[in-house]
């Protein structure tokens, strides 16, 4: 599954727009990636 497919799936499941779902996915990935690199936000 690529990013767009994930965005589409989240949007369909939640009823959110693709833009809103994309923002949530980006925020989630950013939050997960920062700690895994040893950086504290």
Automatic annotation (TrEMBL):
InterPro entries: Hist_DNA-bd, IHF-like_DNA-bd_dom_sf. This is DNA-binding protein HU-beta. It comes from Paraburkholderia terricola. It comes from the Bacteria. The keyword DNA-binding applies. Belongs to the bacterial histone-like protein family. Keywords: DNA-binding. GO terms for molecular function: DNA binding; structural constituent of chromatin. It holds the Pfam family Bac_DNA_binding.
């Amino acid at each position: 599954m690529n990013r767009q497919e994930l965005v589409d799936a989240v949007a369909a499941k939640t009823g959110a727009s693709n833009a809103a779902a994309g923002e949530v996915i980006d925020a989630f990935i950013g939050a997960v990636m920062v700690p895994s690199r040893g950086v504290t936000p």
